[in-house]
């Protein structure tokens, strides 16, 4: 079972992936809503 620093790095990586996806979706959506 993986634990310790490796696990926190993995969690940070997942959070960065979610953030990148959210930005990729939100930026065009906001631009489209603003017209």
From TrEMBL:
It comes from the Bacteria. Keywords: Membrane, Transmembrane, Transmembrane helix. The chain crosses the membrane at residues 12-33. This is Uncharacterized protein. It comes from Phyllobacterium leguminum.
